[in-house]
Amino acid sequence: MIGVSRQQLVSLSVFAALAIGWEILASVYTVEAQPGEPMVAGWGTLFTRTLLSLSDYWQGGFGVPAVADGAARSYPAALLSIISHSLATLSRLASGLMLGGLFGLALGLAVSWSPWSRRLVQLPTQFLRALPLLAMVPLFQLWFGTYFFGQVLFVSYGVGVIVFAGVVNAVRTIPQIYIDNARVLGASRSHLYRTVILPAILPAMRSVVLLSLGAGWGAVLAAEYLGAQSGLGYIIVYAQQFGLLDRMFLIALLFILYTSASYWVIERLFTRLLAWSPSSQATNQ
Amino acid sequence: MFVAIWELASVFVSPIILPGPFSVLQRAAADFWSAPALSYYGVEDPSLAANLAYTAENVAIAAVIGAAIGVTLGLLSARVWFLRAAMDPIMMTAGTVPILIAAPFLLIWFGVGRASAVSLVAFYIVVILYVSSQRAALNLDPIYENSALTLGARRGRMLRDILIPGTIPEILGGFRIALAGAWGLEAVSELLGSQSGIGKVLEVLAGATDPQGILATLLLLGCAAILTDGLAATLIARFAAWRFAGS
Amino acid sequence: MTTDSSRRMIELVHLARNYTRADGQRVSAVDDVSLIVPEGEFVCLIGPSGCGKSTLLQMIAGLVGPSSGAIVVDGKEIDGPGRERGMVFQRDSVFPWMRVIDNVEYGLKCRGVAAGARRDIARDYLKRVGLSHVERAWPRELSGGMLKRVAIAAVFANGGEVLLLDEPFGALDYVTRRQLQEVLLDLWEEPGRAVPTVVFVTHDVDEALLLADRIVAMRNGGIVDDIAVGAARPRDTDTLLLPDMVAIKHTLLGHLGLAHAARAPAGERGAA
Predict the structure, then answer these.
(1) ipTM more than 0.90?
(2) Best exposed site among A208, B11, B48, C139 by fewest CB in 10 Å?
(3) Looking at the whole model, is its pTM more than 0.90?
(4) By CB neighbour count within 10 A (0-12 exposed, 13-18 middle, 19+ buried), where does C5 fall?
């Protein structure tokens, strides 16, 4: 008996069916949004012509000239453009995640130091959390510009609010018995934080981190849609203005790959970190 | 206290960048019913209230459609293994990718108008409620079904007596979360391409470098989101009283 | 007290239930069990963990189908669960989304009894189990013992001819358990209605001796003993000390694998 279960077989066939369906649709629905640009591009076209067309977005350098300067489209150019724009998007996301995560964590722990401060920030935090994050792009663009700094700040704001609220909540719900135990064994306040509180909030932080990852990706994409000059979101929106659906689709596939990979990495990381946790959330499903 | 900090900050920073809280409130009140300046920029209904209503309508329509599809699929998938095996991978992937990725495609297919925004938000809600409903149904202890059967209930009663009452708290919880994100998603969809709505207003005001207006609009949007969140909370308190501790 | 003219309420004919384990091995949970329970009798099924008593009960309830053999209740072969075979489970089965009174009414509601009538019946049974004061409470507000009373009230209010209980008091403390045994017997012996036939699964020997007319011992999926308990009711802890009862207890302990040789006299007891 092969190691593949019934369920996995059905899941795989669904993906296969979707892929085949797409190909069939491409050959049947030959409507073009622009002359020469099909709305539904088959897999073959995607990985040849569409891929090549991505070289349009390469600015030139590394010995590969830019299409804008009159050079022909080429695979190396396409590859370089994919890499450079991916890096742009990923660097914004990573910086935003780290900045927001660290700030959120530090502030959250600081606020949890005394119940007085915790109660004080409760209302403003709830209000900030209620403000729809994605609607605030124009505000951040106005204040901080549409370049790297502004985008990273936007992402870190979104991430920071989630992490802050999550940390405060996690510290609040640590079973008192662990803290009592440490105190009775003679731990000082700071030692308590390092050795008891940080590990104890780790299980709760798993869902917080996954949430902020989702928010981070959404924030990066929104920021790139609305005024970036580079990045995968920029390519999609730029292509959309010319109705170049095939390029949009290719980049979207790439994007899906990145997000799925990021989730997979984080989940693996937490499974390792939470090996000690009795909660079923830490086990593979 | 938050307001105090804000007021303090606005004193130090020029009002062009950070307007004080009171001026923002004044602006929000003034522009609520009529803001003729907006029509200058091509906004269809020149008032904050009208655009807020447009956005709210879209959210509402998307919520109804999304809930109907998401809950039905989710509950069914918990009982029909084939459906679950087929839908789970799609839903899980959709759960990791920001739904915004679909926005440009929808704009091309449906053009600028309600349809693209509503379908985006509806899809978002479908994914969240699918996961909530499926989990709620899977977590529902089979002992209740067995107990009902030995008390003489026929199979047909199961949906009404057991499955729905038993899963409502978790589904409503998911709905509350989905609603919060729905507002932002709707606003961004409008920002990308729309003739009306809060998103359009924000875009216009940003172009006119009007932080006071932007803050005022965001304030109203935030209030709307808080309002619906409160409504969802009341629903939960009413229909899930049996589950959650509290007076 | 079985007489030839007693109606056969439950009849198990060469009942068997098999499972295939994850590693492919076939396991026999119930292995060729035949049993006749006359109307109105209180039978206890006793045995060690994994002997098949719970599976057998689930089959009588109709929640699990037999691999072979037949189950005949009141002359009809059963086909799935039904209200004539009410069941009280070990875990809490009271619907948490309905108030106590609605839970007790549930079976009657399924049958289509009018709202007023079923409310009266439900109130009556709540009174009998001592829970009139929590009629409108949510199940999450009640203790384990109270929830068990609600479950019992609901099943009795439904008026089935057969009552099945699957280690119902196993998760409760000693005092609550004894109280609930009293409650159960009171309802069972209630005058003015037909005495229900009871099949009660337990691993507690004392409980079986206090409650049953007849004790059926199981081991490895089959019946290994069938003992009539003749002690008069009402029974109490002193009843357990009667020589007949002690003898039965020893036999049962033997079936459970807990028998031990008679203790040596005091002088020879070295390191125990």
Answers:
(1) no
(2) B11
(3) no
(4) exposed
